[in-house]
């Protein structure tokens, strides 16, 4: 008789909130942590946004949004910055066991966007501080 192989049961749960199954679409746009980050960004631009079903639809809709010339540059950086941040936090949580409070993740998003800009579309410092205020109020 052949020896029995060990069977491993892998539970598919979102690392960020330990609830729903972790799919790319869930993690990057529907997870409560991701949704909170997206919601804050939408509030910066004064938008109400019906979230897309999947990442591809979100990116297509994002490119079609009209946010004005002044804001277009910052708008273009946001999806990749948010998705990169969410993926980074997911990996910290899953592999390092480090869960950061939401306000620290928000702060990281703001600083990342500001530093990624490299001066191409930096808002004036007073506008940036207004963004920060919106970002941390809740």
Characterization of this structure:
The chain has 138 residues and is an all-alpha fold. 62% of the residues lie in helices and 0% in strands. Helix 1 crosses helix 2.
List the helices and strands and how they pair.
Blueprint: H1 24-30, H2 32-44, H3 55-64, H4 69-96, H5 102-116, H6 125-136
Amount of helix = 55-70%
Number of helices: 6
Count the E strands.
0
Into which percentage range does the β-strand content fall?
under 5%
Taken from the alpha-carbon principal axes, the silhouette is: elongated
Provide mean pLDDT, rounded. Answer: 77
Main pleated sheet: none
Element order: H for helix, E for strand? HHHHHH
- N-to-C CA distance: 63 Å
Quickly give the structural class: mainly alpha
Unreliable spans are none
Integer-rounded radius of gyration: 18 Å
Brief write-up:
The protein has 138 residues and is an all-alpha fold. The protein has helices at residues 24-30, 32-44, 55-64, 69-96, 102-116, 125-136.
Throw out a few tags for this protein:
62% helix, elongated, 138 residues
